Amino acid sequence: MRHFFTAFCLIAGLTFVADAQFRSIYTDLADTKCKTVELSVDEGGSYRGVCPGVAGFKLEVREGDLRQTIDVITPGRRKFELTFWDVSGGFSAVGPKAEWRVKGKAPVALIVRLNVNENPNDWRKVTSYLVVTKITRNEICITDIFLPSRTQNTDARKAADTAAARPCKYPK
After folding, report:
1. 164 CB contacts (<8 Å, ≥6 apart)?
2. Does 109 map to a domain?
3. What confidence tens digit (pLDDT) does each residue in 48-95 have?
4. How many domains are contained in the chain?
5. Which end of the chain is more exposed for a tag (fewer CB within 10 A), N or C?
6. Is residue 143 part of a domain?
C-alpha cells in the first residue's frame, strides 16, 4: 500500500511539473484554412481572413499593398493589432503556420514567421524573420524579432517563454 501511495505521489508530481512546462501548438494561417472576411482586387488588392487559434483565440490575417500583418482576437472578442509592417516596410507575407507557446492550457506567446522582400530590385531576396508576441491579460504585442540564424527557432521559443516580462516593441 505504501508503494502504491509513493508511486501515486510521484506520478501526480510529475504531471504537475509537466503541466507547468511550455509547449507548442501549431495552427494554420493559409487562406485556404481561414474564413475569408474581405477580399478585394481593387488598387493592389486587400484580404482579411480569420484563422482558428487555441483556447478561444483567433488570428486575423490582413493584407494590403502586398504586405501582411496579423491581429490577435481574444476569446472576449477584443482585437489587438500587431502591425507587422512596422517590423519592415518591404513587401511581406506571413508563414503558413502560427506557433502558440502554451503553459498549462493558456497561450502565453505567439511566434509567426514573416517573410519580407526588403530589396524592391530583387524580388527573390527574402529575409525570414520570426516575430514573437506576448499574450497577457492586458497586453498583446510584439516583444522580439529574430533575424535568420542557425538558432533562430530556439531563440524565438526562449524569448516567447519569457515574453510576459518583456516590454512591447510594436505597436508603440
Report:
1. 108, 109, 134, 136
2. yes
3. 999 999 999 999 999 999 999 999 999 999 999 999 999 998 999 999
4. 1
5. N
6. yes
Query: What distance in Å separates the CA atoms of residue 146 and residue 9, rounded to the nearest whole number?
Result: 41
What pLDDT was estimated at residue 10? 41
Spell out the long-range contacts of 81-85 with Cβ–Cβ below 8 A and sequence spacing 24 or more.
81/171, 82/131, 82/133, 82/140, 82/141, 82/142, 82/170, 82/171, 83/142, 83/170, 83/171, 84/112, 84/114, 84/131, 84/142
Which residue in the block uniquely carries the three cell numbers 502586398?
66
pLDDT per residue as tens digits for the range 139-155: 999 999 999 999 999 99
Residue 142 belongs to what H/E stretch? strand 140-146
pLDDT digits 0-9 by tens, 115-147: 999 888 898 899 999 999 999 999 999 999 999
Q: Give the predicted TM-score (pTM) of the model.
A: 0.87
In a domain, 57, yes or no: yes
Contact, 20 vs 104, CB < 8 A?
A: yes
Q: What residue type is assigned to position 1 of the chain?
A: M
